[in-house]
């Protein structure tokens, strides 16, 4: 493998200073962005075979250098545990051999997907003979700001490369050691196949100051995607001058309808809450119809599986023997626990369930468990979230699970990108107009 001077995208831009001045930070981040823009022009011309070769090389190298990645990750996890990081965030931070295999598989899946660049959104020939095509093209330079999620480093890099973009990463101090290894690895792989290493760069060496410069780099960065908790996302949305695609936190609801089958309800709730509680598509609030026959078994099974219930008075009154719950407050209805906690409320109708969801939703994912087709159709029609699910776990709101290969994040906005953001969401369009001398009259 050809060696790459990866420090040209990180520490060397700090002009040899351990504590760079604001002017040095700005200049360094701008140099990275300018190199990214040059790389983006080359990536936009790369054909599918070339980009897929890069993805296969990265996947191969991630597995081949697994021990190095895991050693760096263990250092991050150790620092996180010593600093009192919650178990939920430690779970997001942790890589395992199985998770590394998953990253490689996701890259290979991406390589197998069609290239969105050049695909025609629509086209026609006008009466005057002008031939029109609206085609998908790369966004250009994508900035990504996220925290404590080294898997996102690989996912975003892979998606950006396949869609012909360059990406600038700010992965946060919690995963600094892991991200350094991963970015170096990715840049090595790009150099090996003859694509520009500067298509993937990190500004982590500049810390929060670098992230603030990235947010203001309008004209150098085409779009910014934050991925993390509410505080991070709102900071980016509030302070960025670069256009932002907002990925939202997941205050996810499941409505247990009166007709919900017991076995199905138990299986779905267990999966939606306990399969990986630290992620954004985990259910955080369960709304139980007062006539739901599955209610007691669902609550008993969740409690037996270690779920801590935060319930309203009516739910606490029907809890099976031995099952305990704390009294829920408004703070519980609006909270993304990202842990083995679940807010539970009883409602008497679909109307009450819909009203509760409308008040507290973050617009991420909502689900209904029901045996009533009319109720399912009404829920679909009236819930205004990025994903609406009927009789399945909320854990399926995920780019990989939905066949997108991976995801940059889950957008809760009502823009061109809503829900899991895969390859096509990292493109924009341009109009191609071809004529034979036509002039406007």
Automatic annotation (TrEMBL):
- Keywords, comma-separated and alphabetical: Amino-acid biosynthesis, Cytoplasm, NADP, Oxidoreductase, Proline biosynthesis
- Protein location: Cytoplasm
Compositional bias segments (type: Polar residues): 1-10
Provide the protein name.
Gamma-glutamyl phosphate reductase
Keyword Cytoplasm set for record: yes
Q: Which domain of life is it from?
A: Bacteria
Q: Which stretches of sequence are listed as region Disordered?
A: 1-30
The record's InterPro entries line, in alphabetical order, gives: Ald_DH/histidinol_DH, Ald_DH_C, Ald_DH_N, Aldehyde_DH_dom, G-glutamylP_reductase_CS, Glu-5-SA_DH, GPR_dom
């Amino acid at each position: 493998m050809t060696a790459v001077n990866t420090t040209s995208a990180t520490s060397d831009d700090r002009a040899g200073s351990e504590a760079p001045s604001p002017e040095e930070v700005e200049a360094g981040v701008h140099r990275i962005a300018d190199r990214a823009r040059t790389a983006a022009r080359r990536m936009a011309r790369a054909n599918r075979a070339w980009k897929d070769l890069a993805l296969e090389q990265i996947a191969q190298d991630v597995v081949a250098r697994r021990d190095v990645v895991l050693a760096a990750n263990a250092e991050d996890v150790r620092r996180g545990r010593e600093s009192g990081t919650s178990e939920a965030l430690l779970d997001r931070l942790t890589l395992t051999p199985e998770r590394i295999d998953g990253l490689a598989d996701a890259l290979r899946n991406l390589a197998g997907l069609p290239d969105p660049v050049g695909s025609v959104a629509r086209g026609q020939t006008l009466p005057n003979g002008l031939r029109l095509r609206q085609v998908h093209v790369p966004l250009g330079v994508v900035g990504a700001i996220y925290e404590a999620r080294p898997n996102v480093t690989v996912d975003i890099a892979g998606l950006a490369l396949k869609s012909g973009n360059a990406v600038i990463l700010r992965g946060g101090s919690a995963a600094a050691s892991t991200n350094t290894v991963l970015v170096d690895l990715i840049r090595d792989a790009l150099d090996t196949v003859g694509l520009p290493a500067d298509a993937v760069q990190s500004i982590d060496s500049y810390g929060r100051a670098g992230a603030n410069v990235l947010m203001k780099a309008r004209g150098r960065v085409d779009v910014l995607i934050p991925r993390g908790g509410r505080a991070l996302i709102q900071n980016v949305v509030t302070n960025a001058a670069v256009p932002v695609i907002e990925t939202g936190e997941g205050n996810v609801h499941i409505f247990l309808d009166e007709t919900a089958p017991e076995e199905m309800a138990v299986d779905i709730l267990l999966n939606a809450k306990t399969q990986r509680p630290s992620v954004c598509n985990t259910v955080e609030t369960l709304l139980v119809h007062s006539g739901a026959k599955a209610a007691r078994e669902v609550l008993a099974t969740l409690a037996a599986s270690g779920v801590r219930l935060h319930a309203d008075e009516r739910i606490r009154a029907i809890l099976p023997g031995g099952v305990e719950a704390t009294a829920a407050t408004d703070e519980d209805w609006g909270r993304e626990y990202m842990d083995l906690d679940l807010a539970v409320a009883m409602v008497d109708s679909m109307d009450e369930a819909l009203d509760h969801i409308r008040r507290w939703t973050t617009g991420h994912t909502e689900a209904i468990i029901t045996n009533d087709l009319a109720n399912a159709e009404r829920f679909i029609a009236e819930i205004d979230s990025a994903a609406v699910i009927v009789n399945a776990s909320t854990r399926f709101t995920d780019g990989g699970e939905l066949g997108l290969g991976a995801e940059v994040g889950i957008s809760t906005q009502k823009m061109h990108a809503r829900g899991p953001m895969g390859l096509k969401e990292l493109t924009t369009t341009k109009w191609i107009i071809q004529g034979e001398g036509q002039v406007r009259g």
